[in-house]
Amino acid sequence: MISNIVPEDARYLSSTQYRLWSFTPADLQALRTTTNQFAADRVREAVRRAREARALSSADVSDADPESKSRGASALPEGEVDCLTVEEELKLITYFCRQTLQLGDHLNLPTDATAVQYIKRFYTTNSLMTYAPDTILRTALFFATKTENHYFRLSKFAEAIANTKPEDVLASEFLLTQGLRFTFDVRHPFRALEGAVMEMGAMAQGAVPYNESAGSQPQDMSRRVKIAHGVARDRLKTSALLTDVYFHFTPSQIMMASLLLADEELIHWYIASKFGTEDPMAQKILIVLSDCAGMLQTIEPVAAGPTTERKAISALAKKLKKCRNPEKIDLVALQKVKREGDGVEDEKVIKKRKMEREKVAREADELFGPGLTTG
Amino acid sequence: MSRLKSQSTALTDDPLNDICPVCKSNRYLNPTLQFLINPECYHKMCSTCVDRIFTSGPASCPVVGCGKTLRKKGFHKAFFADLKIERECDIRKRVGAVFNRREDEFESLSSWNDYLEMVEGLIFDLVEGTMKEKAKAEETLRAHRAANAKEIEDNKRAGLEAKDVELQREREEKEAVRQRRLAILREQEEDKLDVEKERREMLERLARGDGDANAITKHAQKVILKKSSARRNLAESNFADTANGSAPSNLSIRGLKKKVAPKAELAYDPFGGLDLKPARYTLQSSYENEWLDNAKNNTLHMAGGYSMNEYYSRTMFEAFSGLGIFIGDQVVEKSLPAAPATIGTVGAAEAAGGRLRQEMNTDDVF
C-alpha cells in the first residue's frame, strides 16, 4: 500500500505532525497513563519533602520567614495526596482548552487553534499536577502568535489578561517549547476545508471534470456545499480542537469527516468522484472518516461547555489545587533562580564581571581605544 | 652551475667538508674541488688526489690505518652526503641483486614475509654487524649466489622484462595522448575552416543579390549551427567507441581493478525526491470563493504580489494531503524492517514507543 503513495501523502509524511505527533489511540492512552503515574509519584515525593522541611522550620520558630511559612502551609494538603486520574486530567485539559479558545476570541487572536494544539501536545508528556494549566495556557496562546506570524506585543498581551505580568507569560516559554519537542508546525484542517469547498463549488458549476462512475451530482449541490461549509467550519473550530482527532487523523481526514457530519450524501459522492466507487482506498477512507466523525461527535460544536459538567469541573479544579506539585508552583521564581544562579557564591563573579565591564568602558573612552593586550 | 652548487655547499656545510683529508687542499682556493669515494672503504678524497694516486694502477688507500687496495675505476661521487647511508644503499643494491625473488613466487604471504625478514637480517648484519657477523653474512651471500645462479639470472631477466613492459606501456600512453590532442586540434581547425567557408558563401550570395538578405543570413547561421552540433555528436560517439575498444589491450598488468565508469550525477533535487505534482486533483486557474472576491478586486491587496494561484494550490494541496494516510496502519508498517517508505518512518514509531517515556524520566528545565 505504501509503495504507490501519492505525492500529497508523501509530503504529509515528512511533516513533524506526522512524525512526532501522530499516535494510535492505544499508544496515546499508554503515553498519558505513564505521564500521569510519573507525575503522581513526583507529587507525593515533593509533598513528603515539603512536609519534612516544614517540620524542621516549625521546630525553630525564631528565624522562620513568616511569608514563606504561611504560603507553604496553605499549599500543603493534609494526609495522603489524592492525585488526579488520567480521565480527570483529560476533562480538565478540555476545559482549559475551551478557556483558551474563549481567551483567544476575547483578544481577537486567530491563532488560538494552534495554541490549543500546543496545550494538548504539551500535556501528553507533562501532567496538570506538575505544571498549572492556567499559566501554560497563557504562554501557549502568546507563543502561538509568534509561530503563526501574528505579532502581538507582550506587554499588551499581559495587560489584556487579568492578573498577568509579562514574566508570568515568559517563565514557562522554554518549558513549553521543550514539551512540544521543538516542533511548532501544526497542520490545521481549516485551509483544507476551503480547498474542498472551492472544488465542490466548481464541480457543481461543471468547471471541474469528475469521475462519471460516481453517478450524477447530488441535487441542488452548490447550495448544499455552502451549508455544509458553514456547519463543518463550526465543527473544526470547536470539536476538532477539543477532541484528540489531531493526534489520530490527518488534517485532510478531519476536514472530510466534519463535512461528512454536515452532509453525508455529498461527501460520499465527492469521495466516489475522486476514487471511483469500487476502489479499496475509497472504502478504507470512508471507514476512517466515519471513525473520525464519531470522535468529533463526542463534543458538541458550541463555544461554551455543557452546563451539566460545570459542577464536576469545579470539583476537579479543587482537587487539582490539592495535588499540585509544591516545587513547581512558582515558575517565575524557578526561572529566576535558573537564570541568575543561587545568588550566594555567584555574587563574587557578578562583581568581577561588573568591574571588568567598567574597565572596558573606561578604556574605550581613551584617545586610542583600549589596549591591545587582552586578559 | 657546478660553481654555484659548490658555493652553496660551502655556505651550508661545516668546514671539514671543504678540505680534502689527503692533500688538505681547500675549496676556498680551488672552487671546483670535488670529492670522490670508493665503496671498498668509503674514505673521501678529492678528484685530484684520486688522479694523482691511482692513475698508475691499484694502490693502497692513503688514509692512515686503512690500507685497502683501491682502483681508480671504483671511485665515484657520493649520492648522499652521509656516507653511512651511501654505504647501506650500496649494500642493499648488492644483496638485492642476489636475493631477487618476487612475491608471486611464494605460496603464502607469511612465507614471503619470512623471506623478506631473512634478507633484511642479512643486510643488517652487513651494515651494522661486527667483523665476525659481517664475514658470516658475506659467506651466506656468496653461497646463495653460487647455489642459485640460474634462478637469480632468471629473476633478473623477469624483472627487466617487467620494467620494459612498464616503459612500453608508458610510451604507448603518451603516444595516445599526443594523437588525441592532435586530432582535437585538427578538428578545431576544420571547424574554423568550415565556418569561414560558409560565411564566405553567404557573403557572396549577398553580393550577388539573389533573395532576401535576412533570409540568407538566417539560413547560413542555421547551417553552421547544424554542422557544428553534428560534429559534436560524432566526436562524442567516437570517443565512446575508443573508450570501449581500448579496454582489453593492457593484459600484462596484474591485480589492477576493473575500471567502472562513474555514475552520471543526477541533477540536484531540492525536495529530496518528493513529487510536487498533485495526483488527487487538477488545479484550476480560478475558483469561486466569496471570501476571495474582495481580495481579487482590490488593487491594494494584489499590489504586493499576492497570488491567487498560490492560495488555490495551497488550499487544494492541504485538502488532499494525507487523506490516504491511516495512522494506525502506518505505525504498524513502520515497525516492519522492509517497509519501502523512506520518508518520516523514524518519528512516529519512536514517539509512540519508548523514547518519550525515557524523556519523561529526565528532569525538566527547572
Automatic annotation (TrEMBL), chain A:
Family annotation (InterPro entries): Cyclin-like_sf, Cyclin/Ssn8, Cyclin_C_2, Cyclin_N
Cyclin N-terminal domain: residues covered: 107-183
Entries under SUPFAM superfamilies matching the protein: Cyclin-like (SSF47954)
Keyword annotations from UniProtKB, A to Z: Cyclin
One GO biological process term: regulation of transcription by RNA polymerase II
Gene3D superfamilies referenced in this protein's UniProt entry, alphabetically: Cyclin-like (1.10.472.10)
GO MF term list: cyclin-dependent protein serine/threonine kinase regulator activity
Boundaries of every Cyclin C-terminal domain copy: 188-297
Transmembrane regions listed in the UniProt entry: none
PANTHER family per the UniProt record, alphabetical: CYCLIN
Name of this chain's protein: RNA polymerase II holoenzyme cyclin-like subunit
From TrEMBL, chain B:
Boundaries of every RING-type domain copy: 20-63
Keyword entries, A-Z: Coiled coil, Metal-binding, Nucleus, Zinc, Zinc-finger
Pfam families per record: MAT1, zf-C3HC4_5
Recorded GO CC terms: transcription factor TFIIK complex
Source organism: Glarea lozoyensis (strain ATCC 20868 / MF5171)
Principal location class: nucleus
Gene Ontology biological process terms in this record: nucleotide-excision repair; regulation of transcription by RNA polymerase II; transcriptional start site selection at RNA polymerase II promoter
MF terms in GO: cyclin-dependent protein serine/threonine kinase activator activity; zinc ion binding
Protein name per the record: RNA polymerase II transcription factor B subunit 3
PANTHER family: CDK-ACTIVATING KINASE ASSEMBLY FACTOR MAT1
Compartments, as annotated in UniProt: Nucleus
Residue stretches in coiled coil: 127-206
Family matches, as InterPro entries: MAT1/Tfb3 (IPR004575), MAT1_centre (IPR015877), Znf_RING (IPR001841), Znf_RING/FYVE/PHD (IPR013083), Znf_RING_CS (IPR017907)
Source taxon at top rank: Eukaryota
